[in-house]
Amino acid sequence: MTAYGDITWLWVRAAWVYPGSFVMLVVGSMLINGLDFVGLWIMFANIDHLGGFGLREVALLYGASGIGIGIADTLIGSVERIGTYVRTGRLDQMLTKPVPLLVQVCADQFTLRRLGRITQAAVVFAWAAPVVDWTLLRVLVAVVMMASATVIFFALFVGFSCIQFWTTDASEFANGFTYGGNTVTQYPLTVFPREVLVSLTFVLPIAFVNWYPCLYLLGRDDPFGMPAWLQFCSPVAAVVSMALALLAWRTGVRHYTSTGS
Amino acid sequence: MADSLIEVRDLERTFTVRRRTGGLRRRATTVHAVHDLSFDVPAGEMVGYIGPNGAGKSTTVKMLTGILVPTGGHLRVGGLEPAVQRTELARRIGVVFGQRTTLWWDLPLRDSFELLRKIYRIPEPTFRANLDRFVELLDLGDLLYTPVRQLSLGQRMRGDITAALLHDPEILYLDEPTIGLDVISKGRLREFLRALNAENGTTLMLTTHDLQDIEALCDRVIVIDHGTTVFDGPLAELHRQGGSTRTLVVDLVDEAEPISVPGAEVRRVEGPRQWLAFPADASAAPIVSAVAASYDVADLSIQEPDIEEVIRELYARG
């Protein structure tokens, strides 16, 4: 972990050599993401409810998942590039260094560019916050939700990037699940049929990113009649998906070290 | 040999290659990249590891460094099993892949080194002493603050070698270290490696196509072909067994009959230019002076035997 800190710190310092371009990147990403939310806003100028949810409620969902993917993407975004590392031989170089491969891959070319994304999501979340009738338990659920959301996206990034150990061009495929998963979480899942919710609960645990915990925050009954205890299960989903992702990673590295070039 | 630093016994590495056999059908075939390979390297030795393209050199080095898992046989480096104890082994070895850099493309050299200090947890005094020493020996002073992508091939190679040595490795693997370098840079690099071996006792394993690298550095040569050792011994012995020859290329002022001097024979004549072959372990000096004494010479050059040719000869002689 100290190695992770050292490597990322070096990249941050390197980026500060050009503070102007760094600031532009952050502001640019904030603007692009800001426009993203404006889209939702405009939609609500014409409708009062989306899938039975009001604007602030949708904003709560949007903010929560945005913070999660923003933090995960900042911490380990480089893992998407392992296909490139394999092709260029960079992975071989990393394998000759005394630091676990996953740490090196995640920390490589660390950038704070995604701060814009996190800030924008946090602003939206803060704006939506008054819609919740806050209690101590709800604050706790909100904090755990964001931590779990980060870990779940973390697991999706790592897990699906592993495919690149077998076929080095699979990064787009992985993006479908990570960024695609993020898009799905920006809407109340009531806009989809029940089957979608079921698969987002038990196959890809994306519903745990924000949907279930937000139902608790909003004090709503589950519109699909799913059991209420699922609303507290985000940390479990996070731990399970992380474990599976690490298993996939190990298998991927083994496969790599036994096929080579 | 219990005191060997590198211990290789009956090492095997197979790859499964799927080939298309028309249409969508694919057939899996097994390729033996390394087969029945055995050798030992005691600490402090400088070994040349050579062989034609595709002979299994890189596969061997990748197994020695823990990048690849062997499919059979026994392998120990410094008492460790490389693929299993990879990160532990990494602290004790340095690796330089000639065509690929270990440095961070967008960072200045100094930052790359600083990062390596942290990755290897090199104590500050050791790091400073080593960096100062290598910067001086490899003449990197002016380049420390240049981003790696702006360095020339030779400069980058010097940076890479420094990067591989900052943590005082016991073994240094060099894959084609002088490829693409000019004559002066090659000479300086070889001199540096010799000094490193003499002063630090660093064991050197060098894969190369350049026989002069071997000549300048290695007491011992291991030749590998089709994944297995075909020769293991001193370079002079390889030349003797391979019957390899060097070639003196003579440009005469005018066209002439084939040159006749003792110890060399004419292989080819093309106008005023003639090619004279002589044994690789013989000195060129008496032949050059004999030619210069009897003919009007415009220019002279010497061609070293190339590795593929030596190995071909080795086979031809059985």
UniProtKB/TrEMBL annotation, chain B:
Coiled-coil regions listed in the entry: none
Compartments where found: Cell membrane
Pfam families: ABC_tran
The UniProt record lists the keyword Nuclease: no
GO biological process: one example: response to antibiotic
Topology of the protein relative to the lipid bilayer: Peripheral membrane protein
Top-level taxon in the UniProt lineage: Bacteria
GO terms for MF: ATP binding; ATP hydrolysis activity
Segments forming domain ABC transporter: 6-251
Keyword entries, A-Z: Antibiotic resistance, ATP-binding, Nucleotide-binding, Transport
Cellular component annotations (GO), alphabetically ordered: plasma membrane
InterPro entries membership: AAA+_ATPase (IPR003593), ABC_transporter-like_ATP-bd (IPR003439), ABC_transporter_ATP-binding (IPR050763), P-loop_NTPase (IPR027417)
Protein name: Methionine ABC transporter ATP-binding protein
Source species: Nocardioides gansuensis
Highest classification ranks of the organism: Bacteria, Bacillati, Actinomycetota, Actinomycetes, Propionibacteriales
